[in-house]
Amino acid sequence: MVDSNGIPSVVTTQFPPPVTDLSDREWFKAHANDGVDRHIGKSLISRITGQMLFTYSRAIRNPDGSLDGVVQVSKTPHFFEQMSLTNDLVSGAMLTVWNPNGDVIARTGLTPDQVGRNYADSKLFKHLLGDGSASGTLQGMSPFDHQTRIVSYQRLERWPVIVSASVPRSSALIVFHQNVRQSVWQLSMVLFGLTVLAVIALRLSRREAAAQATLRTANAALTCSRDDLEIRVVERTRELEAAAERTRGDEARFRGIFNSMFQFMGLLQPDGTVLEINQTALAFGGLTAGDVIGKPFWETRWWSLSEESRDRLKAAIASAATGEFVRYEVEVLGEADRRTLIDFSIKAVTDGQGRVILLVAEGRDISDLKAAQARLHESQKLELLGQLTGGVAHDFNNLLTVVLSNLDLLRKRLDGDNKARQIADTAVHAAERGATLTQRLLAFARRQDLRPEVVDLRNLVTGMGDLLQRSTGPGIRTVFDLPAELPPVRVDANQLELALLNLVLNSRDAMPRGGVLTIELRHRLGGFQGTKPSRRGFICLTVADTGEGMDEKTAKACIEPFFTTKEPGKGSGLGLSMVHSLAEQSGGSLRIVTAPGDGTRITIALPVTEPGEVVKPQPARRNVAPA
Fold first, then answer.
1. Is the C or the N end of the chain the one with fewer CB within 10 Å?
2. Are 292 and 279 in contact (CB under 8 A)?
3. Strands 264-268 and 67-75, sheet pairing
């Protein structure tokens, strides 16, 4: 049984039925295209069993007359091949069943290569068809073996079939009567076979309604299965779309994290070809993704400083491709030929089988770290130097105390000897300068005992005004910019006076041809360079001059102990070092702004005291000796 498209639905010899298309068979076309209800087909080779068959089929139609399916019965022509049916008649006998179109339905001696041939143009078949009688006997050339044969034929009343029996003419007369009897018997057998086919067809027609109902049920089940499958496909499609959306979201998050990383990152193939580079690395090199992606990593701008760095990178990639972790420090080239030292590493990414599929390259700018390490090393050296200096200064200060005490006793006993008294005064003055120097050394070593107190800086500077103006000399104009009502600070007043006098004298020395010296006070809220933020801000004491100024190298070195630009014997090199130490010990900082030919501006920033602290009155101004 086949459906309306010629596809087998039920096959009695196989289950499930094979998937094959029978819509091109003539018996199917007769039902589908010509509207035939019953059809006896010509011999053919079965596509299901591979055997030679002839067919009887009947159409199954819907109430509107359209084709719903075909029931087909196939029969092998073994009946006509039985030797007893022909040898009993006469040698060379041949039984043939024709349809009106000249096609052979079954024949004695039919071979597979003869299946499907049409004999409508043969003279013998034209005699059979053109005679018009229901039966008869004639003589003619056989189209099968090309022998002259005596042919007897019979047209069946209820079937479009012509049955013929033939014998060679050479043997027909010898056994004429036997042939006649055998032919009649064979014809009876053929009729019996056709009767059997008719009975089978009748039984099939009775089962037609049941088969059609089964087919409708199967169609309904298929429709239901199709609807269920469509629903599942829609649900699965939604799941896949949701998974794709999650994947896109994960990729966007990964790319955002990848590009926002502070360090340089890149993804490489195991051979070193660049797959991805984050924005930090691209911005450092002044590059775009198109400049590097798809290229060997060592051919990018970052590694163009030297052939040695490229060769080292190639070797590192080769080692990482074997699963080894590689890390070293290297200098790379950035935008505007900027050379930067980085901590570089390459790590392999493997799959489930341990094969390297990606290389992750990372770089971290360690220029600041190296500079900080250098500064730390320098500060440690200065700390050691300070400790040594502080110890020596402390011991030397004790010796000077003894010397000064004895000189004072000596002066009291030299009232009548002026010359000896002058010598003693000179010794006392030299010892006092030595004591001042030891104070600078102790301040540098931070071993000096400060006595911080609440001080009004405006009053302090105003009180030193005459001293400062006398110290600068007539060729320098001194300007004081001291706003009123500034909040107080906590500092050692004596040490601050000495620090201010040192700054003024340095400015004087920087203006040998005269100039303008400005001393100003300002209240600055928030933070200040090199200090922790103060809730109430800082009071900035600034000494600015219009002198020669300093270059960047000198400005950085001037706060180091024993550094001086003065001639030998005219400076200890501890003045600015002491000022810097005082500022830091008081919770503030020192800032120097200068350039060659633009003068120098030095600011001491001191934190403002908390409300409620009382300013201590300043005593009468004393003579201070600068370093």
1. N
2. no
3. unpaired
